[in-house]
Sequence to fold (302 residues):
Amino acid sequence: MRIIFMGTPDYAESILQTIIDTKDMNVVAVYTQPDKPVGRKKIMTAPEVKTLALKNSIEVYQPSRLRDEETIKELLKIECDFIVVAAYGQILPLEVLQHAPCINLHASILPQYRGASPIQQTLLNGDSKTGVTAMLMDIGLDTGDILKISEIPVNETKMVESLFTELTDVASALTVDVLENFKNYLPLKQDDSKMTHCSKITKADGKIEFSDALSVYNKYRAFTPWPGIYLESGLKLKSIELVEKVNSHEAGKILSIDKDSIVVSCKIGSIRIFKVQPQSKKEMDILSYINGKRLNIADTLS
Fold:
């Protein structure tokens, strides 16, 4: 079985590794995003998928635009049975979609959460389950016919990094299943009436107010470590937990001070804060912060 693989981040890297390790599967080419500058020193860094491909002597292509005519011509010369796509970051043109069955691994239960941030959206909405959808790609954004969905439960304290790891494992196993049993699956059209969409996460998404404790906690779950959650003042809440999500309060007041944490009110509910990071300073425990600010019970955290 000859496979062209398209992907960029570590989610895709794990899927690629699984394919490489599977008997009778031959990755004949890898397409990934161009190297990019990383960190303060702007060091040019290769995508994880590229590093893995080169380690396994697989030809790597990094077009800035997959839609360019010459790029398409080059790809169409590569004989393959399937094209597997996982968080590649570019739209596939029609010519590529027609070259071989294109299978995409999307980290949601489609048609829910089409788009760029399905894992975060699962946590933001407090969903009790999620999954990975293997779909047969078409020209739309995550609109293709469904081949198979693998679901997993999500507990109410699950953090994004842990969920990401679980879904990566699910996607890796699902990829092999669908490739090996492709002829046995009947593609099913998505119900567009149930479609929801999620956008790319930005730093601005991490800004919070003490309005609803459950919403604040779910943002913490979804946005830790990046972009994190922070107040209007720039104070980042680095470690928190949900205390309760029902009672009404005056927002932002310190309700109690304990040996390693404080409880802060929201308009609905309250949260416990263990660690914070003031703007342009290092992370610190919350007691050191409120002592430095001379804050006490009934004062407003800011």
